[in-house]
Design goal:
Chitinase A, domain 3; seven-stranded antiparallel sheet
C-alpha cells in the first residue's frame, strides 16, 4: 500500500467525530468549514472498503489529532508501519470478497429472470437487437449508457449528462468489450458485469467499491469503422472523453 493511499484514508476522517457512539453533527459556520467538510466527504468515501467500527474510527482520529498537534504518540509508528499496510490490505480483500458474493447472487437472479450468460461470466439481456451491423473490438463506438451498482447507486451516466460518448471498444473494461459486440447498431442491452470483467478487488474509488458487480444499460448509437490506437498511444481528445465518461481505469477504461 502506497503512503499516499494511507494518507488519503487518514484524511478521509478529518471531520469525523472521535466519539465511539458515532459521528456528531458538525456546524458549518464558514466557507473554510465547508471546504474541509467537502474534503472529508471526498476522501472519506475511500474508507468504505475498510468496514471500520466506531472504536477503530476513534483510534484513528486520536492518532490523527496527536500527529497534527505534534503530541507524543501512543504507539511506536516504526513498529506499526508494516502492520498498517497488512491490515489495510486484508480489510480491503475481505470487503471485496463480501461485495463479490452479493454481486454473484444478483447476477444469478438476473439470469434466472430470463437473462443470458456468456462463458466469461457476463450476464446480459438484449432489449433491442439493432441492425445487422455489429462492432468489432477494434472499432470505435458511440454510445449512451447508465451505470449503477447492484443497490441502484448511479456511478456514471452519459444519459444523465445528455451527451453520448465515443471510444475504442478494445480500450474499455472486458465486460463492455464483450457486451457491445452482442448487439447491432441501434441496439440496446442491459449488462451485468462481474468484478473480474470490470475493476476487480481494487474497484475504482470513490464511486465503485472493490469487488463490485456493475449494471449498465447501453444503447449502441453508431459504429465507426476505425482501428483503435495501440495501448498508451490514444489521442488526447479520446482520452479526455474517456475520463469524463468514467471509461478510464479510474473510471471505465482498462489499463
Amino acid at each position: 500500500m502506497k503512503k499516499s493511499i494511507i494518507l488519503t484514508l487518514v484524511l478521509g476522517l478529518f471531520l469525523v467525530s472521535c466519539k465511539q457512539s458515532g459521528p456528531a453533527k458538525v456546524e458549518l459556520k464558514t466557507e473554510e468549514d465547508k471546504t474541509f467538510y467537502a474534503l472529508g466527504v471526498m476522501f472519506g468515501s475511500r474508507l468504505n472498503n475498510l468496514d471500520l467500527t466506531d472504536q477503530e474510527i476513534a483510534a484513528l482520529m486520536a492518532g490523527l489529532r496527536a500527529s497534527a498537534r505534534r503530541e507524543k504518540t501512543e504507539v511506536d509508528i516504526a513498529v506499526y508501519q508494516q502492520k498498517v499496510h497488512t491490515t489495510l490490505s486484508e480489510r480491503m480483500k475481505s470487503f471485496a470478497t463480501k461485495v463479490k458474493t452479493e454481486g454473484s447472487t444478483y447476477l444469478d437472479n438476473f439470469v434466472k429472470d430470463g437473462a443470458k450468460k456468456t462463458k466469461s461470466g457476463l450476464a446480459y439481456k438484449i432489449e433491442n437487437a439493432g441492425n445487422n451491423k455489429k462492432a468489432k473490438a477494434t472499432d470505435v463506438v458511440d454510445v449512451h449508457y447508465h451505470g449503477t451498482l447492484i443497490d441502484g447507486t448511479v456511478f456514471d451516466s452519459s444519459k444523465d449528462r445528455k451527451k453520448s460518448v465515443s471510444f475504442p471498444l478494445n480500450r474499455v473494461i472486458k465486460g463492455w468489450t464483450e457486451g457491445l459486440q452482442l448487439i447491432g447498431e441501434g441496439g440496446k442491452v442491459r449488462l451485468v458485469i462481474p468484478s473480474d470483467l470490470a475493476y476487480g478487488d481494487n474497484g475504482a474509488p470513490p464511486k465503485i467499491p472493490g469487488g463490485a458487480t456493475l449494471i449498465f444499460d447501453v444503447e449502441l448509437i453508431s459504429i465507426k469503422k476505425e482501428t483503435a490506437p495501440p495501448a498508451g498511444k490514444g489521442n488526447k481528445k479520446s482520452s479526455k472523453k474517456g475520463r469524463r465518461s468514467g471509461m478510464k481505469k479510474s473510471g471505465m477504461r482498462k489499463s
